[in-house]
């Protein structure tokens, strides 16, 4: 069974005091179409309704979503509920309210703008951006420079509110004295460190960008030369001792190392330009004009005094 159920009509018949403007007002209808998928009394959900719902889910996830009966049931329940709202709005006359019509038009306009922009960008996106990416790399390899990274060793004794903080400080001072006497930091890390990754990396971190570090740890490492270690210092996590093992200078990777990332970057930049181009084309297609008295009427409806603050608009008006 095919169903064509007109949900509502968007037709704005406002008078702006100029017939030429009134002829340009939008008037269109939105219809519910498609084979019936579910029905509850007068409320109906169609196959096309479900297609519209699925547009908010990545296409790559469609099969997994539809293979879950619970998810499909939840989606149908949500769709049916909003259709029941629409049935009630039709019964009460809300859909004929001029302000509600304006709200519907605004929502439809925003959605349409998003869909049109997406369609324009997709239609003009290239199949392959390898050449553009390579040209971008050759023209400015510095933009692909990798940041400086640090190799360091880390000992952490966690701060627990229930622990005796004095004993914790005494332990850190004892460990520091043992290091001064020639103890091996790696051995102390293995025995005392409570770093969450100590069993995995034995306290050794390599090629870590400074911005990824907790601020107090980063500041301590900034002061050290390779091979030097810090004094015990606190943070919100607890007490630390760090040793800077190496400072790795940033480098410009070879083209083959950044090919994929550069290609994706070239694609994204082109799509951003397409978005700006489409927006500029529409915005520049017609200049905005204000019918005589329209702004004054707007301000008066909101009980705003017409003062010198509106002098510019008054001139245009």
From the structure above, extract its key features:
alpha+beta, about 20% strand, 3-stranded antiparallel beta sheet, elongated, Chitinase A, domain 3, 7 strands, 13 helices, 4-stranded antiparallel beta sheet, 4 domains, single chain, about 325 residues
Describe this structure in words.
This protein is an alpha+beta fold and 317 residues long. The protein folds into four domains: 2-122, no CATH class; 130-143 and 254-283; 148-248, Roll (Chitinase A, domain 3); 292-317, no CATH class. The chain contains 13 helices and seven strands. Strands 5-4-7-6 form a four-stranded antiparallel beta sheet, with helices on both faces. Strands 1-2-3 form a three-stranded antiparallel beta sheet. A hairpin with a 3-residue loop joins strand 6 and strand 7 (238-248). Helix 5 (98-124) packs across helix 11 and helix 6 crosses helix 11. The longest helix has 29 residues, at 255-283.
Q: Work out the radius of gyration.
A: 33 Å
Q: How many separate helices? A: 13
If you average the pLDDT, what whole number results? 89
Main beta-sheet strand count, sense and barrel state: 4 strands, antiparallel
Order of helices and strands: EHEEHHHHHEHHHEHEEHHH
Total strand segments: 7
Strand % is 15-25%
Task: Give the helix level as a range of percent.
Answer: 40-55%
Helix-strand blueprint:
Elements lengths: L1 E10 L7 H4 L4 E14 L2 E4 H8 L7 H5 L2 H24 L5 H27 L5 H10 L9 E10 L6 H16 L4 H8 L5 H4 L2 E5 L6 H8 L10 E2 L3 E11 L6 H29 L10 H8 L9 H6 L1
Helix pairs in contact: 5-11, 6-11
